[in-house]
């Protein structure tokens, strides 16, 4: 089947609205939002139903053409960008945007892969429920992408990743069959839990088209604090204080280096430093409860009093209203975008046991400074679950291209340090194409063999998102 014949067949399946062929319209599908990865494609196809997705997959299989599933295209590892050949088909799921069912009694919501995360949050809130996944890109990322990368975000401390938030999936397999696994069951002991094959697989084993997700009772009480800390170890110790006092009311615990905050204050309009003097480290802490009379401010202030007594906190402000809460979160959520204004941003997303956080930061910072004196290290993340974003900017007077040329060397420093603490080189962003080639050096060989075996079983021809996740 020639490319022209394939396009004609695809048009018969999805209609004119479902096919993108014009160069000016294709551009947004061929690069990621950071413009860090670029590719080419024969065509972009946008099916509107699961049946259309299955027909598209079957056509491409018969034609021997590779597919690149794509959601909101907000990823950081190039997992949804086609290669440069121009032979691949981009399969955009953005027209699968129905919320099929909201079941408050079962505390579930069933949504299609193209539904934007923020829409799921809003649909849950409309029935006095709460969907806890929260990301900086929640206004544009889609549920299919969140599932394909096993997204985490700020609520993992209490609610877990997308694996923990998912009860059932609907998936189009590489041979075009549809697995109807949309069941809202919390107990189903009938063999292998197949949904976990596809969550985090980045479209290499099949195309997720819909999911049943968990909902929780809405949080009507919230207490938020911005805390100055002397060190990352102080943050780890503070987590234990707040857990002891608040239990699972501790819903978020974020850490940020001063360099991270400096970039936000410099580049994000409307932000301001909550304190009059700078500090080396900060934590953004939030407690939540379903009750409005839970006295979360009292719990938080008691925990902070203990932290001050033990020298773990240097200053603190407890938000007095929703506007101040939003202002504090803006300091955290603006970090990634703010750093982009400082030249090349080498982004790393790693995780270690919480108990190893302080040692990881000390060892990694020292090694990076030895390699590139004056390097600006932007460390921030979800310290409550051990996940740090270890992002690097060039020295103030450094050259952009020279710094980019050392990206692999600097990544190895971060990954080697992470591995020495039995950590992972990818916590929540996935592997995509950016980390697939180094993964073999850090992943257990038996685990890699099992992953390759699953790939060969489900996608023996290798047409599902080739060049991603698995090293050659």
Attribute tags:
alpha+beta, 35% helix, 20% strand, Alpha-Beta Plaits, 472 residues, Uridine Diphospho-n-acetylenolpyruvylglucosamine Reductase, domain 3, 4 domains, seven-stranded antiparallel sheet, globular, Uridine Diphospho-n-acetylenolpyruvylglucosamine Reductase, domain 2
Task: Give an overview of the whole structure.
The protein has 472 residues and is of the alpha+beta class. The protein is built from 18 helices and 18 strands. The protein has four domains: 3-92, Uridine Diphospho-n-acetylenolpyruvylglucosamine Reductase, domain 2; 99-217, Uridine Diphospho-n-acetylenolpyruvylglucosamine Reductase, domain 3; 221-336, Alpha-Beta Plaits, CATH 3.30.70; 343-427, Alpha-Beta Plaits. The chain has helices at 3-14, 23-26, 50-63, 117-125, 143-148, 156-159, 162-165, 195-198, 232-246, 258-267, 296-309, 322-333, 335-339, 357-371, 400-405, 407-420, 436-439, 445-458, and strands at residues 19-20, 43-45, 67-70, 89-92, 99-103, 108-112, 129-130, 166-172, 178-181, 207-214, 216-217, 221-229, 250-257, 281-289, 315-318, 349-351, 376-382, 387-393. The chain has a seven-stranded antiparallel sheet with strand order 15-12-14-13-17-18-16, sandwiched between helices. A hairpin with a 4-residue loop joins strand 17 (376-382) and strand 18. Helix 9 crosses helix 11 (296-309). The two termini are 28 Å apart. The model has no long low-confidence stretch (mean pLDDT 95). GO terms for molecular function: FAD binding; oxidoreductase activity.
């Amino acid at each position: 089947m020639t490319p022209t014949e394939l396009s004609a067949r695809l048009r018969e399946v999805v209609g004119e609205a479902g096919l993108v062929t014009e160069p000016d319209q294709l551009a947004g599908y061929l690069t990621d939002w950071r413009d860090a990865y670029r590719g080419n494609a024969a065509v972009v196809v946008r099916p509107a139903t699961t049946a259309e997705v299955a027909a598209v997959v079957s056509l491409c299989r018969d034609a021997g053409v590779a597919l690149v599933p794509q959601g909101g295209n907000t990823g950081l590892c190039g997992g949804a960008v086609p290669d440069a050949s121009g032979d691949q088909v981009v399969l955009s799921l953005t027209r699968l945007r129905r919320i099929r069912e909201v079941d408050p009694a079962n505390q579930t919501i069933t949504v299609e892969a193209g539904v934007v995360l923020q829409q799921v949050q809003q649909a849950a809130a409309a029935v006095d429920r709460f969907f806890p996944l929260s990301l900086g890109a929640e206004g544009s990322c889609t549920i299919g992408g969140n599932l394909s990368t096993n997204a985490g975000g700020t609520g993992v401390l209490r609610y877990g990743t997308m694996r923990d938030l998912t009860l059932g999936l609907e998936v189009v397999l590489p041979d075009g069959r549809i697995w109807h696994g949309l069941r809202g069951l919390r107990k189903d002991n009938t063999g292998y839990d197949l949904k976990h094959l596809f969550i985090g697989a980045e479209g290499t084993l099949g195309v997720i088209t819909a999911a049943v997700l968990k909902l929780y009772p809405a949080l009507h009480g919230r207490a938020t604090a911005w805390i100055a800390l002397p060190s990352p170890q102080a943050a780890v110790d503070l987590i234990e204080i707040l857990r002891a006092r608040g239990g699972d009311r501790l819903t978020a615990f974020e850490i940020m280096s001063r360099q991270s905050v400096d970039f936000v204050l410099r580049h994000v309009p409307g932000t301001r430093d909550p304190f009059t003097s700078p500090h080396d480290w900060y934590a953004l802490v939030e407690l939540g409860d379903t009750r409005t009379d839970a006295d979360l401010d009292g719990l938080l202030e008691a925990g902070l009093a203990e932290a001050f007594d033990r020298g773990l906190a240097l200053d603190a402000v407890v938000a007095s209203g929703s506007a101040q809460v939003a202002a504090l979160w803006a300091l955290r959520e603006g970090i990634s975008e703010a750093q982009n204004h400082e030249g090349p941003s080498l982004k790393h997303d790693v995780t270690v046991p919480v108990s190893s956080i302080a040692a990881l930061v000390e060892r990694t910072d020292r090694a990076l400074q030895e390699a590139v004196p004056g390097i600006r290290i932007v460390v921030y993340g979800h310290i409550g679950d051990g996940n740090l974003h270890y992002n690097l900017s060039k020295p103030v007077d450094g050259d952009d291209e020279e710094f980019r040329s050392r990206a692999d060397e600097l990544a190895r420093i971060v990954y080697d340090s992470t591995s020495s603490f039995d950590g992972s080189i990818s916590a929540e962003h996935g592997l995509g194409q950016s980390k697939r080639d180094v993964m073999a050096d850090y992943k257990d060989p038996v685990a890699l063999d099992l992953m390759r075996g699953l790939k060969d079983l489900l996608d023996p021809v290798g047409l599902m998102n080739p060049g991603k996740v698995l090293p050659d």
